UniProtKB/TrEMBL annotation:
UniProt keyword annotation of Transmembrane helix present: yes
Name of the protein in its database record: EF-hand domain-containing protein
Main location: membrane
Boundaries of every EF-hand domain copy: 370-405
Keyword set, alphabetical order: Calcium, Membrane, Transmembrane, Transmembrane helix
Organism the protein comes from: Polarella glacialis
Stored PANTHER family: SODIUM CHANNEL PROTEIN 60E, VOLTAGE-GATED CATION CHANNEL CALCIUM AND SODIUM
Lineage: Eukaryota, Sar, Alveolata, Dinophyceae, Suessiales
Topology term for the membrane: Multi-pass membrane protein
One Pfam family hit: Ion_trans
Compartments it resides in: Membrane
Length: 507
């Protein structure tokens, strides 16, 4: 084979994105352009690329499990009471799942004179005022009324007792006549309680004097102390005032909730006092202050509780000990630091934490109940098919109700921002859906601006974007398959071109 005198440059250019494709310039006619080695290498690179898996855009294994492997742990405080966020979540779930709250007005007549009076705010407030006056009058009667029999008392006390008895009897009659079915009055705990108080008051004020006049008996019928104790039961009506003063209810519930914490702190205080009482009883033997403060373990604990814990007359207590025994004084100082300064302040901190948690829970419950009741009323007005479910169209009608918008603002939900989530809530896979009232309210309460992101929220977000990610991954796989097909076709075409170029060179 002869060589050509004028070498012809053969240039093959291919895109850099195609693996196995090289830029090769042949300067010598007698040399091969591309041999079998280059073709084999291109084939191997192509098959290696085709066999390589596509790197997923999202992890195939979720970062958080959709179903917890272990039961959720309830968040509690060291003393046993729950965290405020846990309490809020439980209250919200309980309110959404339960039936509408109990109201005694539901058992009343729909209309009528008795219902109008019983449900009147003026009547309710007047009753609370009379209850407060009656509570004050009981103190006056206890101090100034020395008569054992009402008929022998001063006319002022007789008039007052008859006036209170008349008012509470009339109030009981109004409430009893308001019930549509009289038997339902037994379902109201407050009415049953008031019935017992009114009965005892009527017996004491009118029943006993009438019985005495009819039988001609004189003196007291039954023990006087028992009758006076029955009179003290009227003070229990003050509990009704707590319902009208939510702040007082918060304090009462806080005290009840903190009872366990108080018992723990007092138990620790009793142990420390017992240990120090034994130590001071033994170390103070032979001193004069021993006979005054530490004669026995019980007396020592009493002295430490009064003087070193409650800090009553602490200066005289410490001066008496300092005059005779500095070691005992040092022990007393350590007890003051532990009991008065540490444990008592720790008790105050625990009480503040409990009351704060209870207050947050009460506010959450009150706001949730308010918005749920208002939204129920609005839904009843816009529910065209009366199925109890909410559709996208009904949701838009709710958004045009001023009462609903005001209720949402009160609980911290932005009505404007809520519209942005409408399609996410009511449209799934391009199909409009309906949801129950409980599910709808749960989603609305999750949109409050004060809420913090939780693991549940991250899981919900993951569940929402997972279908989109799978669709995107499927599209990328299709693009990869098409690209691989095009690469294979290009390589086959390039091989044919090289063969033709090789034949031209050797001609």
């Amino acid at each position: 084979m002869t060589r050509m005198k004028t070498p012809q440059e053969v240039e093959t250019v291919c895109p850099a994105s195609i693996p196995g494709c090289v830029l090769h310039v042949e300067m010598d006619v007698g040399e091969k352009v591309l041999g079998d080695e280059a073709e084999k290498e291109a084939r191997l690179r192509h098959h290696a690329l085709e066999a390589a898996p596509l790197v997923p855009l999202v992890p195939l294994v979720p970062l958080v499990p959709l179903v917890p492997l272990v039961p959720p742990v309830q968040v509690t405080n060291i003393f046993g009471f729950q965290d405020r966020d846990t309490i809020k979540q439980e209250i919200r779930s309980r309110i959404l799942q339960q039936k509408p709250p109990y109201r005694v007005y539901d058992y009343y007549h729909e209309t009528g004179f008795w219902r109008g009076v019983a449900t009147s705010a003026i009547f309710e407030n007047a009753t609370l005022v009379v209850i407060a006056i009656n509570a004050l009058w009981i103190a006056i009667d206890t101090d100034w009324n020395t008569a054992d029999d009402l008929m022998e008392a001063h006319p002022v006390f007789q008039v007052a007792e008859h006036a209170f008895c008349i008012y509470f009897s009339c109030e009981w009659i109004v409430r009893f006549m308001s019930f549509k079915r009289k038997f339902n009055s037994l379902k109201d705990p407050w009415f049953v309680f008031d019935s017992f108080l009114v009965a005892t008051m009527v017996v004491e004020t009118w029943g006993i004097p009438i019985l005495k006049a009819a039988t001609g008996l004189s003196g007291n019928i039954g023990p006087t102390a028992v009758l006076r104790l029955l009179r003290l039961l009227r003070l229990s009506r003050l509990v009704r005032m707590l319902r009208s003063l939510p702040e007082l209810m918060i304090l009462v519930k806080g005290m009840v909730t903190a009872m366990k914490s108080v018992v723990y702190v007092f138990g620790l205080l009793a142990i420390v006092t017992y240990i120090y009482g034994i130590a001071l009883t033994q170390l103070s033997a032979g001193f004069e202050f021993h006979d005054l403060y530490f004669t026995s373990v019980g007396v020592s604990m009493y002295s430490l509780l009064i003087y070193a814990t409650f800090l009553d007359n602490l200066a005289d207590f410490c001066d008496a000990i300092r005059a005779e025994s500095l070691p005992c004084l040092f022990i007393v100082f350590t007890f003051v630091g532990l009991a008065a300064m540490t444990m008592m302040n720790m008790l105050i901190g625990v009480l503040c934490e409990v009351v704060s948690s209870v207050a947050a829970a009460e506010n959450e419950e009150r706001m949730t109940v308010t918005v749920v009741e208002k939204m129920r009323e609005v839904l009843a007005a816009v529910d065209a098919d009366n199925n109890g479910s909410i559709s996208y169209k009904e949701f838009l009608l709710i958004c045009h109700q001023p009462a609903a918008l005001q209720a949402l603002k009160e609980v911290g939900i932005d009505p404007v921002g809520m519209i942005d989530f409408a399609e996410t809530l009511f449209i799934q896979d391009g199909v409009a859906i309906e949801m129950t009232f409980e599910k709808f309210m749960g989603m609305l309460l999750d949109l409050r601006e004060s809420n913090c992101a939780r693991v549940k929220d991250i899981m919900n977000l993951y569940n929402q974007i997972q279908p989109e990610m799978k669709a995107a991954q499927k599209d990328m796989q299709e693009i990869k398959d098409r690209t691989a097909t095009m690469e294979e076709a290009c390589i086959d075409m390039l091989i044919e071109i090289r063969k033709l170029a090789r034949e031209e060179v050797y001609k």
